[in-house]
Amino acid sequence: MNKSRLEAFSDGVLAIIITIMVLELKVPHGSSLSALKPLVPVFMSYLLSFVYVGIYWNNHHHMMQMVKKVNGKVLWANLHLLFWLSLFPFATAWMGENHYDTWPVVIYGCIMLMAATAYFILESTLKKLHGPDSEFANTFGTSLKDTVSCLLYVIAIGGSFISSWIGIVCYILVAIIWFIPERRVEKKIA
After folding, report:
1. Domain spans of the chain, in order of start
2. In the 8-state DSSP scheme, what is residue 1?
3. pLDDT per position in the chain (190 positions), as tens?
């Protein structure tokens, strides 16, 4: 089965996710700069989630360059990832509108953790399809970035019950860790 439809569909869903997120930035009533002040938490949530969607798109794109074939299991694993990513606009808006209150920050982290888990499942499904000795399997595998990210998500979720800013800082740290794409993949496709 050809991978091009999977890539096109995924790109389209990610573009829609970004579009939905930006629609939460409502135009303020007033023309002064102070009218923008209430939008700061919403904009900052949008910025964080925009970076996350960009990271997922970038890594998905790199991964798909290594993929030689897909099957039904891969399609479902990819849809599973897209499901969790499609919840970003909801979590982003809820967190921004409520100025980073505990439960919105916790739910944001749960969705981020589930998206990371879904990405791992997609990667594992592709490794199984391509075989243990394939170039794909040799390129992808659990890395320190994966482990640290999941650990930070767990700390963020639990820590948000102490202070929601613990969660926010952890989410920013994960974004910083993943901002530069996986070097092992870039080396292979270069």
Report:
1. 4-189
2. -
3. 789 999 999 999 999 999 999 998 889 888 999 999 999 999 999 999 999 999 999 999 999 999 999 999 999 999 999 999 999 999 999 999 999 999 999 999 999 999 999 999 999 999 999 999 999 988 887 788 999 999 999 999 999 999 999 999 999 999 999 988 777 777 777 6
